[in-house]
Amino acid sequence: MIIDFHTHIFPDAIASKTIAGLEMASGIKAAADGTLAGLLQSMEKTGVDMSVILPVMTKPSQFESVNLFAQSVNEQYGGKLLSFGGIHPDCEDYKGKLRFIKELGLPGIKLHPDYQDVMIDDIRFMNIIEYASELGLIITTHAGLDNAFQDLVHCPPDRMRKVIDTIKPEKLVVAHFGGWKRWEEVYEYLADADVYFDTAVTLDYIEQEMFLKIWEKHDKKKVLFATDSPWSDPARIIAKVHELPITQVEKEAIFADNAKRLLAIE
Fold it and tell me: The dihedral of CA 23, 6, 110, 182: what is its sign?
């Protein structure tokens, strides 16, 4: 079984324009069209059994539409697609909004400090992470560099560690193997932290030696297969996991077993 723990989709009406804009801003060519149908086609082609969808809210006014859409995806494609909810750090009544997400049956939330223009250790994010943890929600956050925001990294490993040590969240996923293109700092500050790492847009860029250095220091039960679709080709990332000099049991843990445990699914 393969669970992709980090994917994105966009409404059909804006997907093409959105992907084109993000390609230009990031300098990365998308591997899929960014639509729900495109994600399902990619999964069928590459053998991915389930994808976790992570919506990114860029303004508070998107809260209701983003989360009701996430609920509808889960109702229609349950077992195949599983969407998290979204919240913006400037949302009013963050506790009420997190309870709303919980009541919709969404398993977690996605934060993106760069697109939301707030540092990860800002009190607004700290409050959201703490209360989401109290509710038992999974929190996934972008971490490290984002090519579209190269002037400032809003979630560097040292600041992420401050959040972890202060709040001690039980279900925190630090994307991009702890911090995209900040992996030396990940090794220093985060590799021994009690959090999950995903492999989104990682294995195409990290040196295998660096990956294994972090891997050896980190909890092997807390690494999740992820592609950041549409920004990576799942077939290529699957192959790269198979190429790692680790045991078959460890590869199976990355591909699905760790995610199943976190999501509490059979």
Answer: negative
Quote the CA–CA distance of 41 and 55 in Å, as a whole number: 19
Q: Are 139 and 111 a contacting pair, CB within 8 Å?
A: yes
Q: What is the pTM of this model?
A: 0.96
CATH number for 3-263 (one of 3.20.20.140, 3.10.50.40, 3.50.50.60, 2.40.50.140): it is 3.20.20.140
pLDDT at 175 (0 to 100): 98
In tens, the pLDDT along 62-120 reads 999 999 999 999 999 989 999 999 999 999 999 999 999 999 999 999 999 999 999 99
The DSSP annotation for 171-197 comes to SEEETTTTSBT-HHHHHHHTTTSSSEE
- As given in the structure block, the two tokens for residue 59 are 């303004």
Please tell me the distance from the alpha carbon of residue 23 to that of residue 33, in angstroms, as a whole number. Answer: 11
Burial classification of residue 183, based on how many CB atoms lie within 10 Å of its CB (0-12 exposed, 13-18 middle, 19 or more buried): buried
At residue 23, the pLDDT reads 87
Cα 34 to its chain centre, rounded Å, is 16
Neighbouring CB atoms inside 10 A of 150's CB total: 12
Please give the radius of gyration of the chain, using alpha carbons only, rounded to the nearest integer.
Answer: 17
pLDDT in tens, 178-192: 999 999 999 999 999
